[in-house]
Write a structure and sequence with these properties.
- By secondary structure, this protein is an alpha+beta fold.
- The chain is built from three helices and four strands, in the order αααββββ.
- A four-stranded antiparallel beta sheet has the order 1-2-3-4, with helices on one face.
- It starts with a helix and ends with a strand.
């Protein structure tokens, strides 16, 4: 039985060329995957900003239903249910009911989304 474990078998390892081919294939796959991953992340950041744009508009409309002559601020939005996603910054340039304009941008995103008093979202 012990002779079975000590018996030498004719095993060979991988050749250097085989290992180099595997490394080259992995490098090619990584070169394709990394830019795609970056593009997916950018789309995710932009989607978070757009979603926050819709949520901030909904919170502003809830505030205007209670106080039609009031002016929206960031603290009022949070009081009426708006919770900002991490790294998304809202900028309120006009907070009255008829002139509402809220711009949102993710710190790592590429687009800025703006919602107006009619609820129309534009991107820039």
């Amino acid at each position: 039985m012990i002779s079975y474990f000590t018996k030498k078998r004719a095993q060979r390892g991988f050749t250097l060329i085989e290992l180099m081919i595997v490394v080259a294939i992995i490098g090619i796959l990584a070169a394709i995957a990394i830019p795609q991953f970056s593009a997916y992340r950018q789309r995710g950041y932009n989607a978070a900003a757009r979603s926050d744009c819709k949520n901030s508009y909904t919170a502003a409309q809830a505030y205007f239903s209670d106080s039609p002559a009031g002016t929206v601020t960031a603290s009022i939005l949070s009081t009426y249910g708006y919770v900002a996603t991490a790294s998304v910054t809202p900028t309120i340039s006009a907070g009255a009911m008829g002139t509402l304009s809220i711009a949102l941008k993710h710190s790592e995103g590429t687009k800025t989304y703006t919602v107006n008093s009619a609820g129309v979202i534009t991107e820039s």
